[in-house]
Amino acid sequence: MTPPEKTHNQKWLRAIWAEAQRSAGAVLALVAPGGCRICNEPLAEASRLPICRNCLDSFQRIVDPICSVCGRPLGPWITVGPEAPHCQLCRRNVYAFSLARSYALYDEALTRAIVLLKYDAISPLGEWFGARLEELARRAPEALVGDVVVPVPLHPSRLRERGYNQAELIARPLARRLGLPLRDALLVRIKPRPEKLKLTRKERWATVRGAYAASPGARIDNCRVMLVDDVFTSGATLDACARALAKAGAKSVIGLTVGRAGGALDRI
Predict the structure, then answer these.
(1) Strands (E), the chain
(2) What is the chain's percent helix, strand, coil content, to nearest 5?
(3) In 3-state terms, what secondary structure has residue 213?
């Protein structure tokens, strides 16, 4: 059993290391802008964001028609009638979350931007993504409201390795903008992700089943949770987190992600 003092010191050191990485990334982007980290074109001016305006504007925002539950793009050929459109998965009530929305399609440009956030801890990019999710939340139906903001957690071993959680870098500024409390310790990952980098859809669902749980003693009875992650791929992660939160008493779970993978098969 790990002594409480040692656990506290480890958390303190991880926090210092994560803050040092974020500060270094911000300072470097400001004083030595260099080229855009996506297209390599020179940045027009010093900025905390290492991505040029053209690349930021190139992200393909998700627009209607979309599934009214999971937010999946349905394509321009879909005719929206008087009833809210549902994708095949949501017609089968596959997902445990109440609602999910994503900012943009997970194309090559957005993938590279999210990789920068995920592995380089560029916190200004997290701020920018948080602002986009705030806009998304305020434009969405009234159902897209919550009482707390919760980032999808990393397994402790991955958090120690990386020093920060990229979902939290997005969730923290979002919570501040919405005037909601950030509850970054409300949910924990109890099963690690497999080492295999690319997983099939079936493997994604299998690896997250039972992988999350509410923290011991967490008070979330009748709470509306806004769950934040970087990417919605199959929906398996948001679903697993939603099931854990519902089991602990959450009233509803609303998923918000920056990217949304397109062309997913309607089967598990």
Answers:
(1) 99-105, 148-151, 187-189, 212-214, 224-232, 252-260
(2) 40, 15, 45
(3) strand
What is the rounded distance in angstroms from the CA atom of residue 220 to the CA atom of residue 72? 28
Q: pLDDT per residue over 192-214, tens digit each?
A: 988 776 778 888 899 999 999 99
Question: What is each CA distance from 31 to 47, 48, 71, 97, in whole angstroms?
Answer: 8, 9, 39, 43
232 forms beta bridges with 260
Residue 76: CB atoms within 10 A of its CB come to 9
Nearest 5 degrees, angle CA 255-CA 141-CA 258?
Answer: 35
Strand residue runs (E) in 42-146: 99-105
Of the ranges 68-77, 143-152, 163-172, which is most confident? 163-172
Domains and CATH numbers, the chain: 60-260 (3.40.50)
Whether residue 2 has pLDDT greater than 80: no
Query: Where is average pLDDT lowest: 72-76, 119-123, 180-184, 204-208?
Result: 72-76
Q: What angle do CA 232, 66, 259 make, to 5 degrees?
A: 25
| Helix/strand/coil for 182 | strand
pLDDT of res. 76: 66
Measured distance CA(64)–CA(82) in Å, rounded:
14
